[in-house]
Specification:
Distance between the termini: 35 Å
Structural class: alpha/beta
Number of helices: 8
Oligomer: single chain
Strand content: 15-25%
Shape: globular
Largest sheet: 7 strands, parallel
Number of domains: 1
CATH topology: Rossmann fold
């Protein structure tokens, strides 16, 4: 099991779950201290960690190469590493948009391209952890939406290309999940915001989200949308788009100002 961005949030929950199921797990992240802590937490378990920034193609290539050297091959790749952003388009710098595309879209491309030959050998699976915003453009999350739309479109094309190879490709669209992604989200200038606008205690836990992802991979599903709000948003946007515009505007704006 190869999981990008496994030191926090959904990624760490996935690492924990798959190790508990007896899998050999390889994960990467940018923070060496967090990866070291992960190794200490799971000492004695078959875990391989590697310091890598997924927006760097050579880092992804080295991560996959060391994983194959450690475990002999790859059955499943989960493209989980991601970065969010909260800012109105008029207040956003294009450099911040580029940073999100580099991590969320190109990170998926780089890791998948590097791992693909090995996954084809084992007729395995490739998963992308997307978002509801990958199905519906959300105000204040324009860059995040764009990067996830790109990820899903690319994976959808890959899914069809891999049919004759016996490789399953899927994407998972969580709704609001209790992770630190909102507190480390970028503002319009590309700097971390450092706070979340959501009551994290009321959101789906990362552990529950990881279980849904595990089940989707095991059943070789095509796509999964999580949480009631997420499913309702996707359904309404598909069948009642004008009404969805109205409700989404009401949810995110108060007196003309972005509030979430």
């Amino acid at each position: 099991m190869v999981i990008t961005g496994g030191s926090d949030g959904i990624g760490k929950a996935l690492v924990t779950l798959f190790l508990s199921k007896g899998a050999k797990v390889a994960t990467c992240g940018r923070n060496n201290d967090k990866l070291y802590a992960l190794q200490q937490e799971f000492a004695g378990k078959p875990i391989h960690t590697f310091v890598a920034d997924v927006s760097n193609e050579q880092d992804c290539n080295r991560f996959i190469a060391t994983t194959v050297k450690a475990f002999g091959g790859i059955d499943v790749l989960i493209n989980n590493a991601g970065l969010s952003m909260r800012a109105l388009i008029i207040d956003s710098e294009t450099s911040a948009y580029k940073r999100l595309m580099d991590v969320n879209f190109w990170g998926t491309v780089y890791a998948t391209k590097a791992a693909l030959p090995y996954i084809i050998q084992r007729k395995g699976s490739i998963a992308g952890i997307s978002s509801i915003v990958g199905n519906r453009g959300i105000p204040g999350r324009s860059a995040y939406s764009a990067s996830k739309f790109a990820m899903q479109g690319w994976l959808e094309a890959l899914r069809v290309e891999m049919k004759d190879h016996g490789v399953n490709v899927l994407w998972v669209s969580p709704g609001f999940i209790a992770t630190n992604i909102r507190s480390v989200a970028l503002d319009g200038s590309g700097k971390p915001i450092g706070e979340t606008p959501m009551d994290e205690s009321k959101l789906m836990s990362a552990d529950e989200c990881a279980q849904h992802i595990f089940d989707a991979i095991a059943k070789r599903k095509r796509s999964v949308v999580l949480t009631f709000t997420g499913k309702a948003t996707v359904w309404m946007s598909k069948f009642l788009p004008r009404l969805a515009d109205k409700y989404i505007h009401k949810f995110f704006f108060k007196e003309g100002k972005l509030i979430k």
